[in-house]
Amino acid sequence: MKRAVTGLRAWLVQRVSAVYMLLFIVFVLIHFLVDAPHSYWAWRDWMTSSGVSIATTVFFAALLAHAWVGLRDVIMDYVHPIAIRVCLLVLLGFGLTAMGVWVMRILWMGHG
Length: 112
Fold this sequence. Notes:
Blueprint: H1 2-34, H2 40-47, H3 50-78, H4 82-109
Helix pairs in contact: 1-3, 3-4
């Protein structure tokens, strides 16, 4: 029963993160079509506004969660030796965590 709950949770994370990322990308595309920034400073001001910064942070969190679930499932399905599987999962976890820290640093560096 525990495995079924984990599978359902992973399925839900994949679907919710995909829907959020799609909506965010549509929002950004519509914004740039309707009110495109005319300079770097206009773009920077828009990106550092609270709402956009939070939405972008949630986008990258959803992207990393989506990547974790997808790659974890591929590794668990196709890498059979336990030691190699654990090493790959640890490397994946560290890699995605490092990317998350890097993205947060970039996104929130402009906030002072």
